[in-house]
Amino acid sequence: MESQIENFGRADGQPLVSIVVLNCNGADWLPKCFETIKAQTILGQIEAIMVDNNSTDDSVAVARRLLADFPCARTVRNSANLGFCEGNNSGARAANGRYLFFLNNDTWMETDCMERLIAGTEKLGAVAATPYVLNYPDNSYQDFGFYGFDLFGLPSPSSPATASREIFIPGGCSYLIRADVFNLVGMFDADFFIYSDDADLAWRLGIAGYKAAGIFEAKLHHRGAAGVNPAGGIETVEFRTTDKKRFLTNRNSLLTLLKNGQHLLLLPVIPLIALLFLESLVGCVILRRWSFVRASFWDALRDCWRLRGQIREHRRAAAKFRKRSDFWMLRFFRLKLNRWFEIKRLFQFGLPRVDAR
To answer: Half-sphere exposure of residue 114, counting CA atoms within 13 Å on the CB side?
Structure first.
């Protein structure tokens, strides 16, 4: 796919960090996102990049206006919607920073976020990190990455913290990583398109011998799921998803284990398949349509089989940079289940709305 790059300002030497903001028809979210980037205490060391995935709204015009007086900025316009993974990869290829910070457009940062995030990451000897993520309209807790993985091999959720710490998976909405390491472990997997991409990248970082961290002192605010769950504006007011999201999330969760498990950590694939089948049946009963089972379970399994050649290639590539065995990775095993977050959302919003698309 072709990408058109437009530059604004000029960098003096290598920027410390390139902030890559991926966008598709998110013009309304861009002003606050870029205004808070511009307000960062280390703006002179930042390269701001807006990657547009073939938007049909006025996102590009809005971005041009917002970036016009940045000291160092650019837009990358893709000729098609490449998804989260390849869209961010296209931004990374155009970036010059020592660090890459993949930032969702439905976010805003407190003024010292980037300074504290990078300083905290280096202090802990990590190469990847996430800030402490709060909800978009206030200071209530949302996320601090994922601390490990559960018995299904799924990311085990974090909890409110009071200090920086090592974590397993930086959250995809605000993922800082050293650029050379990002390239070494293979960037985001374009086959994923979107969802579970942060977990897959973190698994590769872990087996390659690198450390990830959550930096408590760096604060960022995130709306979350603005694309598939837009109702409520800056606040989430319902539990909503789509057949396609469930397909991609379930398929990519399986792919993450199949690609990165060495031997012992391939075993969670079995209970994960059982869990996904049970969830698809429950969804079928609630929604009263068999198509949900087909999309969320059978299509996910079928597509993993279709991608078996790519899985083998990824496993061979991982073997070349692997420094940690499955037994070492077991230190990230947690009893807290991934689905606990969705159970809490059921109590908060009631049964989910699942769009058949």
So the answer is: 27
Side-chain half-sphere CA neighbours of 148 within 13 A: 13
Q: How confident is the model at residue 220 (pLDDT cuts 50, 70, 90)?
A: very high
Report the mean per-residue pLDDT for the chain: 92
The answer to whether residue 341 scores a pLDDT higher than 90 is no
Distance CA 204, CA 184 (A): 10
Q: Which class for 167: exposed (0-12), middle (13-18), buried (19 or more C-beta within 10 A)? A: buried
Domains contained in the chain, CATH given: 3-222 (3.90.550.10), 240-355 (no CATH)
Alpha-carbon gap, residue 103 to 60, rounded angstroms: 17
Mean pLDDT value of segment 118-146: 96
What does the DSSP assignment read for 136-170? Answer: TTSS-EEE--EEEE-TTSPEEE----SS-EEESB-
Mean pLDDT within 259-265: 97
Length of the chain: 357
- What residues pair up with 108 in beta bridges, in sequence order? 221
